[in-house]
Amino acid sequence: MQTPPPPDAPAAAEERRCPRCGSAMARDQEWCLACGAAATTEIAEPRGWRVPIMLTGALALLGVIGIVLAIAALSGGGEKLGQATPTPSAAVPPPATTTPSPTATPTVSPLPTETTTPDPNATTTPDPNATTTPDPNATATPDDSGTGTGSSFADWPGGSGWTVIIESATSRSKAESVATAAQGKGHTVGILHSDDYSSLNPGYYVVFTEKYSSESAAEDGQKAIKSDYPDAYVRRVKP
Fold first, then answer.
1. What pTM does this model have?
2. Residue 26 — φ and ψ, nearest 5°?
3. Which of 38, 74, 147, 229 is deepest in the core (most CB within 10 A)?
């Protein structure tokens, strides 16, 4: 009896390789352990992603352009974008001015006359030692302008001394009104301008009684008029 031949040995298992790096892979292995590539799995690429990304990028670009245009409009003070700034022209120097030469004034000799005309520009230096007693019978002529150019009240007789002040008015007319009333009561008064004296506050027309050589004498004069002028006070007058 003839013995049948043995069955053929199974074919050697087919060896698998990674399509990317060529590493050996098992039959049921879907991913390469060496490079991570897919051996049998297909990765589907997403579709339709380019259009949304392009639209989003276009909108963002338009927004940036709008912001740039707004900043340029605000910083340019309403000027149009791209408009060239005018270059200031060179300053033209002003024409030189010519100062006219002063014309010499001819000197005319005055004609001789038999009478001597007083010089209106001549000034007289007052004697600082001279004393003047105010006239009790003098009457004041009030000046509506307040300057007192028409007043007949005596001024300070000069030099330093003591006096009794019964009024310090801001206008000449007010001072003359008080002085007139004081004369009506039998007091001897005068008016001085405080700007001319360093010991007095400037800006006043002062109604005073008379000049005393000492403070004690002025205090006695103050007591004599205290009944009519209780607010009168003693003050030194110094040029």
1. 0.39
2. -75, 165
3. 229
pLDDT tops 80 at residue 210 = yes
The distance from CA 112 to its chain's CA centroid, rounded to whole angstroms, is 63
C-alpha 196 chain-centroid distance:
36
Tokens representing residue 5 in the block: 């031949």
DSSP annotation of 99 reads: P
User: For the chain, where are the alpha helices, taking DSSP H only?
Assistant: 50-75, 172-184, 215-225
Looking at residue 16, the DSSP 8-state letter turns out to be: E
Q: 3-state class of 203 per DSSP?
A: coil
Q: Which helix (H) or strand (E) holds 5?
A: none
d(CA 152, CA 179): 11
Backbone angles phi, psi at 124, to 5 degrees: -110, 125
Select, from the ranges 5-19, 64-78, 216-230, the one with the highest average predicted confidence (pLDDT).
216-230
The helix, strand and coil proportions of the chain, stated in percent and rounded to the nearest 5, come to 20, 10, 65
Closest CA relative to residue 183, chosen from 144, 141, 138: 138
R_g of the chain, CA atoms, integer Å: 59
